[in-house]
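Work Package 3 (structural annotation) set out to generate three-dimensional models for the target panel prioritized at the project kickoff. During this period the team completed the workflow that converts sequence records into discrete structure tokens, so that structures can be stored uniformly alongside our sequence database. As a representative example, we reproduce one entry of 180 residues exactly as it appears in the project archive.
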Amino acid sequence: MALGKDYAAQECTIARALEIIGERWTLLVVRDAFYGVRRYNDFLVRLGAPRAVLASRLQTLTAEGILEKRRYQESPPRDEYVLTERGIALWPVLRSLSLWGREQLGQEPIHLFRHATCGTGRDLGPYGECPDCGTVVPVPDVIMVPGPGIDRIPADPVSQALRGAKRLLEPLETEAVARR
């Protein structure tokens, strides 16, 4: 029996959500958008996804209101992809999936997430709460720092730019972009 392409027979919000974000590359695109990756070529370099797959995922995420396409250059026309409020609402899903991978698969964290305002150096709790002030930290106030599992000498310029501390959602500056 062939596997269906959607979950139309399922009366379940999880099934509907999987139609939008359940494809292999999709959550990785969203993850990188949180990290500040915005440009097609940066997603391509970082993820290693086939061009057609990446283009399709960006188109779907834009059509579903998770990403917004914004023009950053007129000649030649070039766009970037920015998380919308609907996309930012996926942060707890990504945070939980990351913690599950760390705990259940025994992986060292590549990035740690901390409250930029408190600046104590302690990782956020499982629900994104600051262990010091107790508040659930809004995504723009989350700072990402390298964890013990980070590749210290990554091959691509996007991963190199993600080696330092930075706030989530801030546009990523790769060396190639900075030189223009």
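Helices lie at 13-21, 26-34, 40-47, 51-63, 85-88, 91-105, 157-161, 175-179.
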